[in-house]
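May I ask for a sample protein chain and its fold as tokens?
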Amino acid sequence: MASNTDLSTPKHIEGGCLCGALRYAVDFPEDHDFKNACSTCQCTQCRKQTSSFFLTSHVVKPLSAFRFTSQTTTLKDYEASPNAQRGFCANCGSLIYWKPKGGDYTSFAVGTVDALYLWGEGADGVTVPKEGWGRVLAAGEANHWWTGNEIKGVTDNIPAAGYGRGKKWKGDE
């Protein structure tokens, strides 16, 4: 299997919430490190906000690399902890991003990336590869946060999705 460094990488992607009220674009800097920008989190907050066993996210910096391309009247921030903001759509509930207060990056939810970029739906193979860029956006080679909350036999060993790579953090280390 080819490593993520052997795959093509996007310069630009787009995404949005389930109802379409929030739309965003990401313009990746030339030196963006795709391999070390994707991570997962199994903390209780991410589980409850996504209604899933873990959140798959991708970090992009500087903050200006991530921008909304639509109105943001439905964008709401929720502070599950005092040092971070979670941006979501007030209409449909889609989690769009997580970012630290005062930080220089945004960690966007990979599941909100448009199908064209994520798995190549409608791709022509020229501007977007036919298989999309899902693997380089969500390969899980960076960090796996709050693995102390792993569910034995369910989320503790997910090598088929590539999540067995990267550093596992048991908690707020």
Notes: The first helix runs from residue 44 to 50.
